[in-house]
Amino acid sequence: MDERKPLLEVRNLKKYFDKSRGFFKREKRILTAVDGINLHIYKGETFGLVGESGCGKSTTGRTIVKLYKPTDGEILFNGVDLATIPEKDMLPYRRKIQMIFQDPYASLNSRMTVTDIIGEGIDTHKIFDDQEDPELAKQEKIYELLESVGLKREHASRYPHEFSGGQRQRIGIARALAVDPELIICDEPISALDVSIQAQVVNMLEDFQKERELTYLFIAHDLSMVKYISDRIGVMYIGKMMEIATSDDLYDKPLHPYTKALLSSIPVPDPNNPNKGSRIVLEGDVPSPINPKEGCRFASRCYYARVTMAKENYPASFSNALIGKTSIKTILNPESREIIVAENQVITDFAATLIDELGFTEVLVGKAKCFTETPELVEVRKNHYAACHYIEEINKDIL
Amino acid sequence: MANNDFKFITREEKLDSETTRRSLTYWQDVWRRLKKNKLSMFGLAGVIIVILFGIFGPFFTPYEYSDQVLDYSNLPPTLEIYKLEDEFYINVTKEYRVLETTSKGKLLGRIDYVYKDIVNKIYYYAKSYELTLDDGESGNYPLGDTSLLYGSVYSEKWGIAFRDFKNEGSQDEVELTYIHPNSPFNDVLMEGETFDIHSEDLTLTSIIFVSDPDIVNPVYTSLDFDDGAQAIIDQLEVEEHISEVTFGGNMIIVNFSYKLMDVDERPEGYEDVQMTVTYNNVEAKYIHDKVSNSTYLWGTDMLGRDLLTRVMFGARISLTVAFVATLVNFFIGIFYGSISGYSGGNVDNYMMRFVDIINSIPLVLYVILLMVLLKEVVIDVTIFGKYFVIFKGGAGLGTIIIALGSIYWVGMARLVRGQILGLKEQEFVLAARTIGVSRMKIISRHLVPNAMGPIIVSMTMMIPSAVFTEAFLSFIGLGISAPKASWGTLANDALSGLTTYPYQLFFPSAAIAITMLAFNFLGDGLRDALDPRLRKG
Description:
A: alpha/beta, Rossmann fold, 2 domains, 8-stranded mixed β-sheet, 4-stranded antiparallel β-sheet, globular, B: MetI-like fold, 9-stranded antiparallel β-sheet, 5-stranded antiparallel β-sheet, 12 helices, elongated
């Protein structure tokens, strides 16, 4: 671990949503959006958080600013645990942590002028109340912010709908900067923008980081953009942190099978690339985060945990059964009637029986540990953390 | 053109040429855009006119909303007049009352019945009669509001006429209906007085029946008061000394028997005639003219009350109920709904169940209970020595407003809650929460303004709905009571005579419709004007 002191440290953060159904909520359904993640962000750095849609990136960001009440865990900001602070005492910390939102069209109140939008934070935190003329000071600050994000003074009296998406996002950034925060959580701030605008906005964010010593938690699913902006990157999958490493480390030497699959999906704009065709295609859909089963979250789609269903490895009856059912997508489906967990060699006859005689449509075959034990995030190399039982086995050549 | 013909301008110069519009405040902008919307300006004008109509209208009519003139009941706004002679026009009402009018439609008075020949459907009317007494004296006497002759007995000797004999026990009474100008009682008796027929002060020597022998087969009673003895009510035996009463050419004869005949039954030349009016032996088959009723511009209702005045007065009550109920709903509904929606979870659950409970109580039951509860409540104040009653319980305006105000808000609360539920997860609300804006400010600055569109539409819908509910409550006797009127009660009153007197329904319902339309147009325009996203230019 780095000897620097982290600005933000998240320990075992959990955010569950109750989606229970039925009369008096008899059918218990817990959506584990964020399930015990750990991360720390040093002052002045950019921490990228990547993952597929619905993996809990945004929920993590929103829980850190306490838009959601954490179910469990600690959010240490400068050593103060925000998770236990009641809402009414949060105001001083609200000024320190700000957020930039994904959708520039939804994140600005269409009934307010730009002045009102940017000035809201200044009013709430009474930043200029000690000044002789708070209104004037506020107006000057707003003009200054507008100019620093590349807008004009006269835009101050306009309404959000009069701006383009990029301009709106700049207003959103100006709003976040208005209260002089230390940490800004950027919740996919560029994914709704035009590619040419994306670069402008990202460069602007970098400039502000240098100028104002800002720390970013940058949530995104655009891997190349995250690589470009982040110092360190965390990879999430269904509420769990899979791997954390420095940006270069992660991209050059990914350790976790999921990260490998994720990175292999980045298109390379080079037809002669030797790695062309080596893309790892994950089969199946992302499993539901409602009432997840024990074990590694990625196990159901992990090409390593799951035994490859090669025809020659199995009795004819089993492979025939699979071939005959074209609707079978892959081995595991959490909604299926049963999951069989076994070490590689044990399953064959039993699985065949299940399919042939009991009418199971899908039978899982895989490494038992992956399905029964949840792997912890451990430091595999210096500043490189991964959560996988077989990390060393997989990465024999690297480690 | 050479390159060096161009030169760079400085930043100041560049900025100089930029012109920016003076920025408007939010409400200035709303007003500017509302003005551009013709339909909503039309609505606004309508709303203002209706309000002015209600507030100031009653000052400009000569009638009170409660003034009754029974002779002029059920008059339409347009009169069909018959010309009888120069400067003598009459209108025959639907009930076959004959009213004298001018050619311009001004009502001059009623001409009374002399006799109704119900069997043949011929009614006789006269303004005056000519009376010839035994001694040869004769004169022309006007028929008053209550006919002197119809059903009266006339004492020739004393020059007074009586009618309404009541013969119950010892209380035999007569009403004095006419005093001849030369009567010895002229100074001591008044028309309309009643007397005990055994009265000793009044010794009548003879009373004779007076009527038109030409047209009436007399069945009236003759009395002899010679010695103050009992009155004898009997078949008339015509006295020796009959006074001759003639109507002669003065009589107006209305024959409406044609109306009830099939066309082929009607005599020749009367195929398309509904009714004839004969005066001075001249028969008028058709109406002379249709003129607007210049005495009662919108006509009168069944009690002869001016409809225009009543519609104006009704505007006051209906609009008061509508505005107060809507405003109360607006504030309670928004307050309750936004707190419920924003809090979410169990708070929302309990608050909405409370709304369900209120909503499940029938309005009528609720109003009745409220009336019982508020029956004795009177809120009054004395300001500068003047006494004002602010609220008085029981059936009436105050209770209706309280009832509507306290029950209508549930709809608004539901609507606002639904809107807020949708809005509170929007990113601009999350942004405000991240900044640390307080709950109340998030609700008032972010959520409610964004929910304003549906709220305003629902409010404009609520105004006519409140007018109707008030009408309904008044109709079942829980609201405004006669002679006060609201548009709803006016419409309800008119409903029974709809086919005969359609105008009585037309005016109040037109007022309701115009108000509703005006509020809807205005609400539509306001919704658009309040939404800066729809701002153009």
